[in-house]
Each structure stands twice: as structure tokens, then as C-alpha cells.
């Protein structure tokens, strides 16, 4: 662990910078230390009156008494506490969790910690989670779709790749874009992402057209279309189409989440 912390950071220009505090962003040590340090939070919630062991009857009794029910969702150092109660209950739980984390020398970031209503929505792990009325009906549902920040980040990556590879063949550019787009769409396909994928497809096509115009300044659009096609392709390599990715809603499964790993017992 000491070797990881003292390994330094390799910057974009190829120089090595020393690390004097914290763990480098993207280091495999960061999620490990997060899971070790935040295990106290998991145990506190698990042993609470409405932990995972609480039955449906116990939760109903708490609601009749005006007490909150809550669940913890955590991924490394990002966590979200879902509270069924009032804002006062959420604020009290925030203070309670702050005290629990202080025993490990930790404290929630004031800039990143907020209390919000599900109707106003929140962003968690790149997803926008919000409840609103379904179009054409009077019923309200919780919808999960890619956040604007996540879309802006992938668009910035597409723009950077297209601007930095003007001198390379189109095949190389398509390989780099396809690797990045497949991973991004695979992560965001489990939600209401059809509109986002279609928007990304349009933006992607425009950036490729701009790349062609910069690379072949004296070639007309008609000649470029005849050479590369309407949807960019070069030989056997075709640009990945985000709009063709099938999406699927993630349905609540409670605590009965199947594991792909075989049992050792």
C-alpha cells in the first residue's frame, strides 16, 4: 500500500510528479481504501432499526409511528441514502452519519453532500434519478437516465479524439471512437437512454463530417460521401452507432440480487 501511495503520477506530458497526500485519481488502491474505511457506514446502516434485516411489517410499523425508513446505496466512496420520510428525518440522518464517519477520521464533502426530494431529482454515478409524471397519464414514476454532465463528458471526448487525429487514417479514428463509445453505451443502456443515444449519434456524425472537411479541404462533400459513405466507414471498420444500442429498464429486485459466481459451499 505504501508503494502505491508513493508511486507518483504520470502527467500528460510524460513527466512523473510526486504524490504528497491522498491517492491518485484512477488508482486501484482508491476503491480498496474506500471500502475499508466506509465499512463502518455499512455496518451502522445494517444494524439500524430499518436495516436490511428489517421485515416489511417492521417498516410498516415505523411508518405508522412517523419514523423514517432508509436504505444505503454505495459504490466505493460514492454513496446515497434513500430516506422515506421528511426533510427533518434526512437532516437528522446526515448528522448521525457524520458522527459515524468521524470515528474513521472522515467527513462528508459539503460541496457534494446535499438533501433533495425525489421529484427534484439527483445525480448518482452518472445517472439522473428523478420522479415525474408519465406523459399522457396521471401516474408518477421514477425515471433513470444519463445525466447531462455524463453526456457532456463523452461529447468532449469525441471532440478531442476528432481534433487530435486529423493526420491519421479514418480507420484509426474509428477504432478509437468505437472502443470508447461501446463502453459508454454499455454502462448507460440500463435506463431511459434512447433519446440520449440518438442525440449522441447526431453529434458524432457532425464531428466526423468536420474531421473529413479538415482532412480533405479541397475535396467536395459529394466525393467524400462516395468515398466513405453517408455513415462513416473505412473498409471493414464502421463507426459505432449509439442509437442502435438496445436499452433496458432496471427493475427493483430488493435484496435478492443474483450473483454470477459459483458457491463454494
Automatic annotation (TrEMBL):
<dbReference type="InterPro" id="IPR043502">
    <property type="entry name" value="DNA/RNA_pol_sf"/>
</dbReference>
<dbReference type="Pfam" id="PF00078">
    <property type="entry name" value="RVT_1"/>
</dbReference>
<protein>
    <submittedName>
        <fullName>Reverse transcriptase (RNA-dependent DNA polymerase)</fullName>
    </submittedName>
</protein>
<dbReference type="InterPro" id="IPR051083">
    <property type="entry name" value="GrpII_Intron_Splice-Mob/Def"/>
</dbReference>
<keyword id="KW-0808">Transferase</keyword>
<keyword id="KW-0548">Nucleotidyltransferase</keyword>
<feature type="domain" description="Reverse transcriptase">
    <location>
        <begin position="1"/>
        <end position="129"/>
    </location>
</feature>
<dbReference type="Pfam" id="PF08388">
    <property type="entry name" value="GIIM"/>
</dbReference>
<dbReference type="InterPro" id="IPR000477">
    <property type="entry name" value="RT_dom"/>
</dbReference>
<keyword id="KW-0695">RNA-directed DNA polymerase</keyword>
<dbReference type="GO" id="GO:0003964">
    <property type="term" value="F:RNA-directed DNA polymerase activity"/>
</dbReference>
<dbReference type="InterPro" id="IPR013597">
    <property type="entry name" value="Mat_intron_G2"/>
</dbReference>
Amino acid at each position: 500500500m505504501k508503494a502505491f501511495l508513493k508511486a507518483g503520477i504520470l502527467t500528460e506530458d510524460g513527466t512523473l510528479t510526486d504524490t504528497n497526500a491522498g491517492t491518485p485519481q484512477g488508482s486501484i488502491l482508491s476503491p480498496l481504501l474506500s471500502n475499508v474505511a466506509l465499512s463502518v457506514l455499512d455496518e451502522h446502516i445494517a444494524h439500524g432499526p430499518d436495516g436490511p434485516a428489517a421485515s416489511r411489517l417492521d417498516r410498516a410499523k415505523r411508518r405508522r409511528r412517523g419514523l423514517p425508513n432508509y436504505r444505503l446505496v454505495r459504490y466505493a466512496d460514492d454513496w446515497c441514502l434513500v430516506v422515506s420520510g421528511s426533510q427533518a428525518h434526512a437532516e437528522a440522518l446526515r448528522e448521525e452519519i457524520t458522527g459515524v464517519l468521524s470515528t474513521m477520521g472522515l467527513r462528508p464533502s459539503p460541496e457534494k453532500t446535499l438533501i433533495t426530494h425525489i421529484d427534484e431529482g439527483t445525480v448518482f454515478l452518472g445517472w439522473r434519478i428523478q420522479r415525474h409524471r408519465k406523459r399522457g397519464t396521471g401516474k408518477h414514476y421514477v425515471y433513470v437516465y444519463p445525466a447531462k454532465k455524463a453526456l457532456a463528458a463523452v461529447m468532449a471526448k469525441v471532440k478531442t479524439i476528432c481534433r487530435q487525429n486529423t493526420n491519421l487514417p479514418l480507420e484509426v479514428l474509428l477504432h478509437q471512437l468505437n472502443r470508447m463509445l461501446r463502453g459508454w453505451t454499455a454502462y448507460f443502456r440500463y435506463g431511459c437512454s434512447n433519446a440520449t443515444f440518438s442525440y449522441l449519434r447526431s453529434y458524432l456524425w457532425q464531428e466526423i463530417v468536420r474531421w473529413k472537411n479538415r482532412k480533405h479541404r479541397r475535396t467536395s462533400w459529394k466525393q467524400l460521401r462516395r468515398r466513405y459513405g453517408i455513415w462513416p466507414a473505412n473498409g471493414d471498420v464502421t463507426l459505432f452507432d449509439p442509437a442502435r444500442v438496445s436499452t433496458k429498464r432496471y427493475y427493483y429486485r430488493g435484496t435478492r440480487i443474483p450473483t454470477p459466481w459459483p458457491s463454494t459451499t
